[in-house]
Input
Amino acid sequence: MLPEVPFQGFWYFVAAIVAMFAWRIWGERVKEALRRFDQRRRDADLQAYYDRMNPNAHFRHSVDQIGEKTPAVEPRTDGSAAWNGEVYATREDAEAARWRHIVREARTFYIDLDRSFGNRIKAPDAAQRVDDGN
Output
């Protein structure tokens, strides 16, 4: 059972003291987390502003969506890297293979989109241009 309180509002006073100690201990971490959150929000707002002015922003959105769904490169202990079940000599090689996959999937998406709406594809070899080094 709680002891008898010496004055009215004693427990509010104790809670305020505990909050001051907690802020002294964890305040900087909380402020830094809030700063990072606010910076990410401002960056997202700025990107949305740029996207409203860019008629081709949907390409970036498509690539971002495919990139989020594509598994990440996993570093290995011997200095090599693995991606999608294959082992590459360096992490850069694995990242390049991942990027080629993302671009290939995005191009396939837009080719299928053109075909589904009956639009004519401008380049006859659009599906093969993934491997041309671009």
User: Anything to note?
Assistant: The chain has two domains: 8-53, 56-134.
